[in-house]
Every structure is written in C-alpha cells, then in structure tokens.
Amino acid sequence: MPPFFPDVPKIQYGGPKSRNPLEFKHYDPDAVVGEKTMKEHLRFSVVYWHTFCNPLSDPFGAGTAQRPWEDGSQSVANAQTRARAAFEFFEKLGAPFYAFHDRDVAPEGRNLKESHANLDAVVKVLKEEQERTGVKLLWGTANLFSNPRYMHGAATSPNFDVFAFAAAQVKKAMEVTLELGGTGYTFWGGREGYMTLLNTDMKREVDHLGRFLHMAVDYKKQIGFNGTFYIEPKPKEPTKHQYDSDAAACLNFLRTYDLLPHFKLNLETNHATLAGHEMMHEMEVAIGSGALGSIDANTGDYLLGWDTDQFPTNIYLTAQCMICLLQMGGFTTGGVNFDAKVRRESFEPLDLFLAHIGGMDAFARGLKIAHAILEDGRFAEFVKERYASWDCELGRRVEAGRASFSDLEAYIAPKGDAARNASGRQEMLENLFNDYI
C-alpha cells in the first residue's frame, strides 16, 4: 500500500535554531529533564476524532478537509483504510499514544449487533497497526452524544431503552479498550445535562448517572480491566448545563455516589475556560483530591464563547500545566492528549503535522520552564514564607483538628489585633515567571 503522507518524513528534533517547519524545535523525546525523558514526562497522544474524522465544517459551510485516503463512504473498508492512515501519522509524528471514540473508528450499523461487528472489524486493523508501530491506546470511550437517540442524554435519558442501549455501547467499548491494551477509559457526559428544568427531574437523572457508573465499575472488575476510569468536566455545549460542569462539580458528584475511589479526572483547557476557570485552577482542584489522571491539550479563543478546540501554543499555559504535573509527580496512566483540531482554513493533510508539532514543542518548552522554576525554588520559598505564621504551635493544632474557637480567642485576645499582613507581591512573581519564559 502506498504511503498516505508521501511528502512528510518522520519528524525529527532539529533544535531551537531549526527553520524547518517539519522538525521539532524543543521536543526531543530522548532528552532527559529531571529524572525522566521528555517522552516519559509528556506521554503525547493524538485524538482520532478531530484529526481523522472532523470534516472541518461549521454552521455556515460544508467541510473543507482534504483527506485523500477517504472514499466518502461510511463503509467498514473505508474505516480500515482510515486506521492505516492514522497509524502512519502517529508513527511519523512520533506520538506514543492515541485515543478514540467507538464511532470514530467504525461506522454505526443498523442495529447494535451490526455496530459491534463493524467495530470488531476495525479493531482488528488497529491491533495490527499497534503491533507494527508500537503506538499504544491512551484511552478509549463511547460516543453517547451524536446519534439522535441521545438527544435527551444517555445515562441521564428519561427513556429507559436509551439508558440500556448506552450501557450496551459502553460495555462493548470497554471490551475493545481492554483488547487493545488501553491504559484508561473516559466518560464524557456530552448530553448528560439539561436544556430546561421545566421538563427535568435533576435528582433522578443524576441518580441514574451514578448507577450507570457503578455498573461500569462492576463490569471493569468482571473483565479484569486494570486501566484508569476518567471523567471529563465541561460546563455546557451541547446542553445548557452539564452535570460534569467543572472539576469541583465532578469531585462532589463522585463523593456523593461513592465513586471517587474508582475515578480520576481528565481535564481540558478549553472546557476550563468555558467554566470560567484557568486550566491551572482546574488542575489544582483535582490534584488537591488526588484525582488528576490525564489532560486534554488544547486552548480556546477568549474572544469566542464556544469550544474552539485550538492547538496549544501559549507557553505560559503549557508551563503552568507542567508545574502542576511535575509537582504531583507526573502521569501514571494519563498523558498530554491533543484534543484539538486544525482551523477550517487549514485543510491540507500537511496542516495536521504542523499543528501537532507546534503543540508538542509548546509543551516541551513548558516542561523545561516548569522544571527550571521548581529547581530554582524561589516560588516555593515565597509561598512557604507567606504561610509561615501557620507553623506556630496553635496553627499546627488547627490544621490537625485539635483546636477550638476558645483556643483561638485565648491566643488572639492579648494581641488586641491581628499581625500586619505582608504583601502578596503578585507583580514581582509575574515578573519572575517572565524571567523563565
């Protein structure tokens, strides 16, 4: 079979002075940063849906994407060809992982049985390509939002038959993820929410979602799948309000339904923006509960109010992400997953490479900057000093849960007032951060 990207060589590291757009300027997979290589730190993953299935259409026009390997059909044979094209891309890019929805890799059939058969036929090719290239599956998932049956939700649908169909679809997607050696499985509640509360029993819907996920946990144990379960927060789109609206909402839900021991979060930058948060905030919320598992690497346009899923090129963003990841000890099963799409005007196959190279370089720079910041220690020392008053004997008792209001009153009354506050030095710290950039 002739190559799908005949004019693109395997992408190499050319160094910061390289002027070749098909070389990495900062991502050197074998370069050691701290105690790991860049490849081990970053665990880059390419998504199947945006990269190989997105036609680059929008509400105002048809798709523009040129994908020469496509024959325009929804056949299994076309899906198998697409899989081979995808793995040539992964291999030439040097991405060690990929991620997919079930309906990305194989067309939906006329019924559940036919859909399962279609998926099996393409999984056979995926397995062959994984063995040929060494590329691994970061995580799999089921598309429970595109088909009209899911117009009211899947696990939260008022239609019990839809709930049952979704369960069967997830069951199969979990089996396939296990067969392909996936390191995780993601639940994204694309339509698990509401458009209006006038027709919604919110408590009952969220209860059903909790039961659905408990059944998934049970089946995970039954089939011996040892990968990580992830939930991916997003506040809106396509619903007005999604039940997994941000990291804090997800953690509250998981605790309420006794699911936290079984799940971690997969956080996406653009979803954080839509929720009114910075990505660093969402990561710190998840890390504080020991629940950060993986990240979707993209960004949004702050002048546009929807999920634009652009490739990350902001070095401040990537450095902040990598500070959080390095401080928590790095990934175990997750990775930096490029849930991003090229712009509608970037329609050629070459643009897929250029976009991913830029994102990988941005995260490589972020990794180097984050490591330098943490090694230098000035930020950590400033924060430590800022909270130094808590290191007194009574402060430690408060933190340990061994003090009362009466103890605090007895401590502060002789002082007459609280000690004078120290400056937060925000501008100085922002200037210091700029020094590393």
Describe the structure.
There is one protein chain. With 437 residues, the protein is an alpha/beta fold. It has two domains: 12-376, Alpha-Beta Barrel (TIM Barrel), CATH 3.20.20; 387-436, no CATH class. Helix content is 46%, strand content 11%. The protein is built from 16 helices and 14 strands. The chain has helices spanning 38-42, 48-53, 76-93, 102-105, 112-133, 160-179, 202-223, 247-256, 269-274, 279-288, 315-327, 349-376, 378-386, 393-399, 405-412, 426-436; strands at residues 12-13, 23-24, 32-33, 36-37, 44-47, 97-101, 136-141, 184-187, 193-194, 228-231, 241-242, 263-268, 292-296, 336-338. An eight-stranded parallel beta sheet has the order 7-6-5-14-13-12-10-8. Strands 1-2 form a two-stranded parallel sheet. Helix 11 (315-327) links the parallel strand 13 and strand 14 (336-338). Helix 3 runs parallel beside helix 5 and helix 6 runs parallel beside helix 7. The longest helix has 28 residues, at 349-376. It is globular and about 80 Å long. The active site is at residues 101, 104. Its EC number is 5.3.1.5.
